[in-house]
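Risk register update: the risk of archive-format incompatibility is retired. Evidence:
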Amino acid sequence: MQRSSVLNGGDFHRLVVDNITELVALVDHQGNVLYASAAHEQKLGYTPEELIGGALASLIHPDDLDQVGDAFAQCATDGRAALAEFRIRHRDGHWLVLDGGLTAIDDGETRLLLVTASDVTERARRERAEREFVANAAHELLTPLAAMNAAIDVLQCGAKEIPAERDAFLDDLEREVDRLGRLSHALLVLARVQATAEPLRLQPVELCPLLHEVAASLRAGTEVAVEVVCDESVAVLGERDVLERALTNVAENAAAHTARGRILLAARRTGKGRVAIEVRDTGSGMPPDERERAFERFYRVGARGGEGFGLGLAIVREAVRVLNGTVEIDSEPGLGTSVRLALPEAVV
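Archived output:
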């Protein structure tokens, strides 16, 4: 068999390096780039020519410089070193997560370092989402458990001997057990979707009965009216437990921060194959800077933070995402807040 002329050429190794998808770079002991493979332009937006002669550290996230520096020092001493995950800046300014290793190369006079790295940004995102999901789930599960423990304590302290009080607390326990079961199912559905990218089995969900159930479960203040406005025939494609959890979180958030006025739960067709679901309150409201962060995990918004941990709306965002919908929030300090979900319409 005749050998390819490419294999016989002196550029064979460069041809191989320039056509692999991993990032390959050669740096000197000071961290200056001597060679960068062609993959850098595809992955990071920089041409090899732009990188050569520059300092690799100028692209690394400041918080990751120490660990990368330690790896370089270890490689210079031992000849090999693993690079933990570190962030590197793309040309457009966003950060990618890389994972790779270092190998020392001696050219007879100086020691050079060969850097190989893979883009693991998506894997890091999934792992972060899983960690956030566990934290969100733990908080949501603790809420009904705390209510159940409180009811049990009161019963054990003597309420069980008074029929009226006993029955009231047993009703509370039954309601919280039911809530815990439905919440657990919703969280398991979300976990399955996040872990396997499995699409939900969407079915028509009638909104009027669901909105009335959510409204009836609210513990609003005595000066707060809870209203439902909904066309009896309006429905969305969704998973009922997941949607109920999202709407309940939004409505409970409204109830917790509305001292007087009203909370409105409404649904209407938009005429574009979508249904808009809105929960509007006359509560304390939020300024623009806090509104932009309202869906962040653990972020507690000013006066609306209350005793919560800032997790309810984070689950809302994730639930709406897996339902192929969108969510947005409008708010004005002192006037109230409106949370709007848009979901695919279903015909029933």
